[in-house]
Amino acid sequence: MLVNNVKSLLNRQLRCCIQTTSVRLLCTAEGGYTSQVKDTFRGNYDVIIAGGGMVGCTLACAMAKNSLLSNLKVLLLEASPKSDYQLKSEYSNRVVALNQNTKALMTSLNIWKHVEDMRLQPVRYMQVWDASSDVMISFSSADMMDDDVAYIVENDLMLHAINKELLSTDNENTHIVYNAKIDSYQLPKEKYSSPQSIVKMANGDTYTCQLLIGADGANSAVRKAMGVQYLTWSYEQMGVVATLNLAEECTNTTAWQRWLPTGPIALLPLDSKRSSLVWSTWQDNAKQLLQLPEDQFVDALNDALWKQYPRSSSVETCTSWLSSCLKQVGMADGAARQLPPSVSGVAAGSRAAFPLAFGHSTRYIAPGVALIGDAAHRVHPLAGQGVNLGFGDVKDLTELLAEAVYSGLDITHPNWMEKYESVRQRHNVPTQFMIEMLHRLYTVDFMPVVLARSLGLQIANALQPIKKLIMSQAAT
């Protein structure tokens, strides 16, 4: 095995020399860089990660810390300029709900300690209920062997924690280029040839690599260069976000989500006095909410949380009957519930909105190229799973690539890359399907549909194995 590893390392070094020469000749042949070859070619790398968001930076950190991958020469291209992060007393309006698997990954990379040193809010309880009936489902830390249901962390704080650990990692093989504006990609075309990607920057700089990772978001230029089919549609909705001030100080460790006929509204805890809003609604309504004066926005928000919507007598009769049956056999009927907090105000300048859409790339890989995060898949925020799926991509890609290197395989060998695609799609596609079905099920106000989902939610809440299955799926 040691001979295989040495042989693989020597092969990569030889290939770097050959590729550097070939790229210079290629640039000259193309006629664009004849007189500036030495100035524009900035180097050959084993891996280039396009995109320095939370997922891309985590991958760079994971590779730098992995003993089998730390010798790889890695370049991270980040479009934003380098900036100093300052923790402010006011919370950011964009947050993520991180599950237990993400926490485990971040702990293994020593990133979680930076988050804990700043701030996060654990979610110990979660309550989801339907505005069109009285049914609900709840989850608590007791359902997860006393582990927290989730952790609410601000996006920019999380990215800072990842960057802080990445920059402190003692690995001279990892390089970062900030303010990197990528002009185009030239990708290898033959599956079993020695692949080489060329990354051309807007300023004329050129980089080459064996393995190109697309971590450049939902509008991924890497994915477009691959030419793979991308399934996407708009929900014709926007997610309205804001930082909310609560009417009363409380032990705020509960996440609340109410399904309105227009989409879900969620309050995610930040501290004892504040929560973060994610309100999914139709585009016209979202734009109106952004334009309302603060007092009217707060009224609309409390109305969305507390308003009694029209009920179907048939649905009420059936759910009441099922509730009685559940009581008779000693099971939870969902009648006991907590009341959500009232909102008293909105942090100045925190209201914003972003469009909601579905997206999934039919292929995650091509010769010498792989996609991670939103570049490969995009989901509705109703389940808070988007970034967790991306971090799952990072974990599996790192592990499979390390196994390939340990076995003496090339870092672009199709065996491990195809396994990565298979493993991730087997997890991501069912999760996306479940979220899509929930969205479609709860944005319909047709009585038979309301009845079916109400009875289903009652049964799911009463059966602990089903609740644990839901929680285990959400935690991976």
Automatic annotation (TrEMBL):
Which pathway does this polypeptide act in? Answer: Cofactor biosynthesis; ubiquinone biosynthesis
Where does it reside? Answer: Mitochondrion inner membrane
Gene field: LOC113499099
Give the EC number(s) under which this enzyme is classified: 1.14.15.45, 1.14.15.46
Taxonomically, the superkingdom here is Eukaryota
Q: Taxonomic lineage of this organism?
A: Eukaryota, Metazoa, Ecdysozoa, Arthropoda, Hexapoda
- Identify this protein by name: Ubiquinone biosynthesis monooxygenase COQ6, mitochondrial
Q: What keywords is this UniProt entry annotated with?
A: FAD, Flavoprotein, Membrane, Mitochondrion, Mitochondrion inner membrane, Monooxygenase, Oxidoreductase, Transit peptide, Ubiquinone, Ubiquinone biosynthesis
GO CC terms, sorted? extrinsic component of mitochondrial inner membrane
**Which cofactors go with this protein?**
FAD
